[in-house]
Amino acid sequence: MLVQFYNVSKIYANGVKALDDISIKIDGGEFVFLMGPSGAGKSTMIKMLYREETPSRGQIFVASRSLVRMKKREIPILRRNIGVVFQDFKLLESKTVYENVSFAMEVVGANHREIRSRVIEVIKLVGLQGKEKSLPSELSGGEQQRVGIARALTNRPLLLIADEPTGNLDMNTAHEIMELLFDINRKGTTVIMATHAWELVKAARKRVITLESGKIYSDINPGEFTLCK
Amino acid sequence: MQIRNAVYFFREACKSIARNHLLSIATISTVTICILILGMSVLITLNTSTFLDSLESDVEIMAYLDQDLDNVGVKEVQEKLESLAGIETITFVSREQALQDMQETLGKKNYDLESTLGKNPLPDSFEIKAVDSHDVPDLAVKIEQIYGVYKVNYGKGVVEQLFSTAKWVRVVSLVFIFLLALGAIFLIATTIRLAIFARRKEIYLMKLIGSTDWFIRWPFFIEGIGLGFLGSMLSIIILAAAYGSLLNRVNTILFMPLVSGTNVLINLYLSLFAAGAVLGIIGTGISINKFLDV
Ligand SMILES: Nc1ncnc2c1ncn2[C@@H]1O[C@H](COP(=O)(O)OP(=O)(O)O)[C@@H](O)[C@H]1O
Ligand SMILES: [Mg+2]
Fold first, then answer.
1. Cβ pair B31, B227 in contact under 8 A
2. Residue of B nearest to A156 (CA)
3. Which value does ipTM take for this structure?
4. Any chain B CB within 8 A of the CB of A187?
5. B256-257 and B252-253 as β-strands: parallel, antiparallel, unpaired?
6. pLDDT per residue over B117-157, tens digit each?
7. Interface membership of A87 toward B (CB under 8 Å)
8. Of B57, B231, B15, nearest to A106 (Cα)?
9. Residue B1 Cα, ligand 2 centroid: separation in angstroms?
């Protein structure tokens, strides 16, 4: 079991109840969609996974470690095991593709030779070889998101989480990014992806957890043909 | 701190200084001016207090004895003087000796005092040096009360003024230095705040990727300390060159001997260098605690 939510609720400081009694379990190696309309609470769940937010009630475990009881100085260790991909890519505009990716290894103190070989490897994995020296502004949206995915993968995370990674892309490009994420998942990385694009989810035939107003509406795994609540 | 991380921190700090080069130059110049004035104040204080110390140590008490005191009486006065605490030396000056001294000062050829005056008008006296010249006024009062002492003279007023001038110079320099240091700290803090601001997206990503807090802080500390160092180095170069050429040309100003001991100056320059670093650390610390949310 890689991720467990036990009766998690989140009430923001302004009184908004973003999550209401959420319980889920995600195994290592799974690919899971978090589906739901805007405001359903998807981003809140995602942010809890890398501990940008903490639950108001309930417990969350990642790799058997409680994120609620986790001490501040343990957070970096958790985050090194989680790669995050954003809707708006969050690339550093003044850095090249290579530097945007190597950045993720430099800031956790990896050594030079290690960085070089790994960065070349992940740039190839996301299909951007030859673009190492380009700046983000010289790339298409799809290419920029590939840089974001490469950066999330460099430190070999157990878990890749993506919050609307195709939200800023056209349908064709979105499908290409989906293929890349499936590929990464096939190679063993657990992927959790939040989206409200039903077309992508429908085509994928993967486990779908649907959220609505902070509650789990359905949790369907086509591979297993089970329906929980 | 591992070496490869240190390389990364230094590279980031240099990039940040280069990226905000205008502000960096402004900050370095301000630190330079601050440390320069600080150094000048210290040099002035140092020279003044050395001068005052040398003046102060020259302060002597002259105790004139009653004209009709016999040898036994003189002996008694001397014993009482010796029993006082805080006295370094006591020298007896007989009236004959005093007359001779006076004639030497005035020039023997022109005057023959004794024949002019008919008799020696000067009294016997003791020349007294205190261990600590600050005790002179108190000692003078005590000596005046000794039976057989007719009059005590120590340049009353001048000594007190000397002490209060010395204190005043020190206080004003300290206030000045304090205000300048505040200015330098404020500027460094501003530079670092802007550097943090310019990199806020990078800092957010570093946190998400799993950088430790100190990994994020180090480049800013190195930048702040570096700005302090560069500023103080420049000011030390300017100060050393200026003071060195002053020493070459003259070694006194208004009869005041200039401090020129190499050790004293090296210590001063090292302290100024450290002062630059301390300003950098304090300035950076303020901004990091206030604006870097790690
Ligand atoms: N930092 C926040 N402070 C207050 N309310 C928030 C905050 N973040 C999200 N919300 C609210 O929580 C609810 C769920 O938001 P979110 O998790 O972003 O949903 P989704 O990602 O599914 O669109 C929304 O009503 C949103 O307005
Ligand atoms: Mg969202």
1. yes
2. B209
3. 0.88
4. no
5. antiparallel
6. 667 778 888 888 888 877 888 888 888 888 888 888 876 66
7. no
8. B15
9. 38
Backbone angles phi, psi at A162, to 5 degrees: -130, 125
Band of the pLDDT at A229, cuts 50, 70, 90?
Answer: very low
Angle at B200 between CA B197 and CA B203, to 5 degrees: 135
Q: Which of B204, B209, B216 sits opposite A104 (nearest CB)?
A: B209
Q: Does A17 touch chain B (CB under 8 A)?
A: no
Question: B152, B63 in Cβ contact below 8 A?
Answer: yes
pTM: 0.73
Hey, whose CA ends up nearest to atom 26 of ligand 1? A39
Give the CA distances from residue B207 to residues A90, A108, B111, B195, in Å, rounded to whole numbers and listed in that order.
13, 10, 93, 17
Reading the block at residue A154, the tokens are: 């460099």
pLDDT tens-place string over residues A118-166: 999 999 999 999 999 999 999 999 999 999 999 999 999 999 999 999 9
What CA–CA distance (Å, rounded) separates B203 from B294? 9
Going from the N-terminus, what domains does chain A have, and what CATH number goes with each? 1-81+157-229 (3.40.50.300), 91-156 (no CATH)
Distance CA A53, CA A60 (A): 11
By DSSP bridging, strand A190-195 and strand A159-163 are parallel
> Tell me, what's the pLDDT at B110?
57
